[in-house]
Structure formats: structure tokens, C-alpha cells
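*** Query protein ***
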Amino acid sequence: MCISIAAASILAKVARDAMMVELDKQYPEYGFASHKGYSCVAHFEALRRFGPSPIHRKSFKPVREAAPQHKTNGPLFER
């Protein structure tokens, strides 16, 4: 049973990383292809510089903190 859970976890990570590479084409300023959206200095710098994109999770504290500084576009953010 643990092997199947581990395998599912690996498959989910690989699928998510592939999705982030595709999203990098829509939002190249965030560098998703290189860091896959995981917390890192480059990602936080892009959030501060460009504000959140429509795909950013509003519930994530660094995104919430970046949102008021920038006008945001997309269905996830109120104006």
C-alpha cells in the first residue's frame, strides 16, 4: 500500500511540474518553468515585482501580501 501512495505522489508531482512549465508560456515573468511555483527567492521577487497572476493562490500569505500592491487581473481577485 505504501508503494502505491508513493507512486501516486511522484506522478502527481511530475504532472504538476509539467503543468507549471506550460503555465510559464502564459506567464513568463514568473519563471514557473524553472522553479515550478515552489517557494523560492525568485518566485517571491516576481510576486513583489509583478503582483499575483490569476493562477496564484490567494490563500497563500505571500500572494495575499503582494496583491494589495498591484492591480490584479483574473477571476481569483476582486478589484
